[in-house]
Amino acid sequence: NQSPLPLGSLPAVPTLPLLQALQTRAPGSPGWQVGPASGQPLRYMLNLYRRAADREGRPRRSRSLGTNTIRLVQASSHGGQPWAGRWYLQALTYHLEGQPEAEHLLRATVVYLPSLSLAHGRLLCALELVAASEAPRVLLSPTARPRHGWAEVDVTPYLVLGNSSMESLALRHVCVRAGRAAGHNALVAPSRPFLLLYLNDTQAGLAPPAAEPHRHRR
Amino acid sequence: DTGTLAHDLPNYLREQGREKSDCSLRPFPVSFAQLGWDHWIIAPHRYNPRYCKGTCPHLLRHDYHAPNHAVVQSFVHQLVDASVPRPSCVPYRYSPISVLMIEPNGGILYKEYENMIAESCTCR
Predict the structure, then answer these.
(1) Which positions of chain A have pLDDT values less than 50?
(2) What are the residues whose beta carbons fall under 8 Å from the beta carbon of B105, sequence distance 6 or more?
(3) Which residue from A73, A79, A103, A90 is spatially nearest to A165, judged by alpha carbons?
(4) What is the pLDDT of residues A78-105, one digit of tens each?
(5) Which chain A residue has the Cα nearest residue B48?
(6) Cα of B75 to nearest chain A Cα, Å
(7) CB within 8 Å: A95 and B105
(8) Which of A106, A116, A111 lies closest to A140 in space, CA to CA?
(9) Is B97:A18 a contact under the CB 8 Å cutoff?
């Protein structure tokens, strides 16, 4: 029977470490632009969460994430009509600017549906890496057995070049419709592949860097 | 061997078994809906850090995992100088909490925050 706490009753900087850490990410803090995530990326992450933690939020001993932070990055498309006859071609870009310094990339995978059933036939999909314009395209093959229909492609090598990490990743989502084209869903768009960054946050749970005296970069 | 020594002192005999006011873990659930954060924190729906409260018994049983010093301090309080406080009831073990949240750019973040839930109490 707890009455909702008016936010005003909270001190400007909550003393509870978790709330303090979360407050830096709350809406209203700089950077909020887009509405809530939905659809298959949300379902994917909810399933991941339920396998990794119980209802109270305590991580399960049996979890095998291998890291304490996983970020799902959604792609932005370049617009235009992706359908050309039986082919679906969509150029996608994943923006990776502004990753917190304390989060170190361990692994990166792109998750997509290799096959979609349609009313009359199937949509078969693959991913191509778009490197520099003159370089030949690289067809990315799944690196893990599809789970719940999802396929994963390890793109870590394309994100970490030497000591630096890329600011973005460009892919092409290529699908072909197998079977008869009939009805309105002949042009159904497959769900957009999303990028998963497996990160090790060396400051997980501690006060965010901004709470510490600012150290000048050397 | 405090066990046998304790039996020699009358008021120790009275402390047999767990009292209701003994040092123990208490719930303190806070729902993210209360904070108005439930539209961007997807899971869990509430955060229960729990806390330790209660008096530390004179006989510090093994399950308190109390350091030897706490046993000594308890004796000093009881036998030598009552102005020396009894050991305090504080958390002993913690567990992390996993949070699933929506990010400003529409991404979704799973993060584990260390030492955010008290799992057991100790006296020290």
Answers:
(1) 1-2, 9-14, 207-214, 218
(2) A31, A33, A34, A73, A74, A95
(3) A103
(4) 777 888 888 899 999 998 887 888 888 9
(5) A56
(6) 34
(7) yes
(8) A111
(9) yes
pLDDT of B43-89, one tens digit each? Answer: 999 999 999 999 988 777 777 788 889 989 988 998 899 999 999 99
Q: Is A84 helix (H, G, I), strand (E, B) or coil?
A: strand
Q: A67-86 burial string, b = 16+ CB within 10 Å, else e?
A: bbbbbbbbbeeeeeebeeee
What is the complex's ipTM, to 2 decimals? 0.77
Structure tokens at A188: 């159904």
Give yes or no for residue B4 having a pLDDT over 80: no
Q: Which two tokens stand for residue B22?
A: 């003994």
Q: Are strands A164-165 and A138-140 parallel, antiparallel or unpaired?
A: unpaired
Tell me the C-alpha to C-alpha distance, in Å, between residue B104 and each of A35, A74, A197, B40, B51: 8, 12, 16, 9, 32
CB-facing half-sphere around the CA of A126: CA atoms within 13 A = 12
B43 contacts on A by Cβ (under 8 Å) = 46, 49, 53, 57
Q: What pLDDT, on the 0 to 100 scale, is given for residue B66?
A: 86
- Which residues in chain A touch residue B39, judged by CB atoms under 8 angstroms apart? 27, 36
**Which residue of B lies nearest to A40 if distances are taken between CA atoms?**
B108
